[in-house]
Design goal:
By secondary structure, this protein is an all-alpha fold. The protein has a domain of about 55 residues: Winged helix-like DNA-binding domain superfamily/Winged helix DNA-binding domain (Arc Repressor Mutant, subunit A), CATH 1.10.10.10. Helix 16 crosses helix 17. The radius of gyration is 21 Å and the shape is globular.
């Protein structure tokens, strides 16, 4: 495909590099995945308004999330949303929103995650929200419908994604034996493709399930490999979280909410858009803007963003 892309490259080359990035991500070769992602980005920059840029940003956000950089992932998705809105690539919005739901759930913002999942009609995201809310029955009901649909239409990848989430939901519902059985079925389907991140991105709940499967002697090589990655991820996260936050060279540091507003400002969102995104009154957003300007010693948005970038805040 890349040889056929030509010079100058065609949009299909961007998709090809992004496809490779996703494959290496699933294999947990995050460095190679990032390299292919960068090649995709370089090509999209040569072609104005290529919608693949939004998908690249979603990939980059997932990569940052896998590396434990939640705030970095959120900032990337802010840029993706601004790009989609600016170029009216509305059809790309659901994939951006699905990634945003993951970030919001990581941040514990269930209300915003639920609103986004419902607004964009994202069943998998709605399942994750149900699980975060402790409503396992609702999650399992949606998953059963999705599984039937995937099987009826022969969507192998979608079926696998649903099965992994179904195993997690069954465990949360108290049906551990059934959860382990569904997981083992998913492992059997995933093993030929060498899927890793599909499982380990589910975090501690998946670690418990894999340990139970390993204890029963099911696919010991595969479960052992996945558990090793999960342990390494947990160790990395622990080391990162034990580091002190970088000092802000400001007399009065910005609050977490002010930093959130600043990131959205840097992504080009209007006050109204920020108000809708953060579920805040417009007057509250404007108040945050004034406080940010004061702390940064600037008068307008462009100066605030430039100053923030110089300080490494965005």
């Amino acid at each position: 495909v890349l040889q056929l892309a030509g010079d100058p490259p065609q949009p299909i080359a961007c998709e090809a590099y992004l496809g490779l990035a996703h494959i290496y991500y699933q294999w947990n070769d995050l460095d190679t995945a990032q390299q292919h992602g960068q090649q995709c980005l370089q090509l999209t920059r040569q072609m104005e308004s290529v919608d693949t840029f939004a998908s690249y940003e979603v990939f980059l956000a997932r990569l940052k999330l896998a590396q434990g950089d939640v705030s970095g992932a959120a900032a990337v998705l802010d840029e993706a949303e601004a790009f989609v809105r600016r170029h009216s690539f509305v059809f790309r919005m659901p994939e951006v929103a699905a990634a945003q739901v993951l970030i919001l759930l990581h941040q514990g913002n269930l209300a915003a995650a639920a609103h986004l999942a419902q607004t964009h009609d994202l069943p998998i995201s709605q399942v994750r929200v149900h699980l975060a809310q402790g409503d396992t029955s609702a999650a399992l009901a949606v998953l059963e419908q999705l599984l039937q649909q995937a099987e009826a239409k022969g969507w192998a990848d979608e079926r696998l994604k649903v099965m992994v989430l179904q195993a997690v939901a069954l465990q949360a519902h108290g049906e551990k034996d059934k959860a382990v059985q569904v997981l083992c079925d998913a492992l059997a389907l995933a093993a030929p493709g060498g899927f890793i991140r599909l499982f380990v991105d589910e975090g501690p709940p998946m670690a418990h399930l894999l340990s139970a499967a390993a204890a029963q002697g099911m696919m010991p090589d595969y479960t052992g490999k996945l558990l090793a990655v999960l342990e390494a991820d947990a160790q990395k996260l622990e080391n990162t979280s034990s580091l002190p936050p970088p000092a802000q060279p400001l007399i009065e540091p910005l609050s977490p909410r002010e930093l959130e507003v600043l990131h959205l400002m840097a992504a080009g969102l209007s006050n109204q858009e920020m108000s809708e995104r953060l579920f805040l009154a417009l007057s509250t957003v404007k108040g945050h803007n004034r406080t940010i300007f004061g702390k940064l010693g600037v008068q307008r948005r462009t100066e605030a963003v430039a100053r923030a970038r110089a300080l490494g805040l965005v």
